[in-house]
Amino acid sequence: MIGNNGLTDAVIREIAVNLDAHELIKIRVLGDDREARIQYLEKICAELGAQPVQHLGKLLIIYRQGDAERSRIELPKAKKAGKS
């Protein structure tokens, strides 16, 4: 959860720990500023090498692929264009 103090170093570290453990996480953001939430999402992804999945209201969902050995999520292979 990102509280009233915003995206502090401690929050970034906690997000990194949870991404290492779970790969896909949800982050709840307090406050009504949509632009701030978008900036938080961009900063988290840039600093931690993660990918944004969804920004739904006050909820940010991000993904960072873990080690191949421990990876829990298998992404679908891309479909080839042009085939019907």
Automatic annotation (TrEMBL):
Which InterPro entries is this protein grouped with?
Answer: RNA-binding_CRM, RNA-binding_domain, YhbY-like_sf
Matching SMART domains: CRS1_YhbY
Superkingdom of this entry's organism?
Bacteria
Q: Is RNA-binding one of the keywords?
A: yes
> Coiled-coil region(s) at which residues?
none
**Short name of one Pfam family for this protein?**
CRS1_YhbY
Keywords from UniProt, A to Z, are: RNA-binding
Cite the CRM domain residue spans from the record: 1-75
**PROSITE patterns on file:** CRM (PS51295)
In its UniProt entry, what is this protein called?
Answer: CRM domain-containing protein
What organism is listed for this UniProt entry? Silvimonas amylolytica
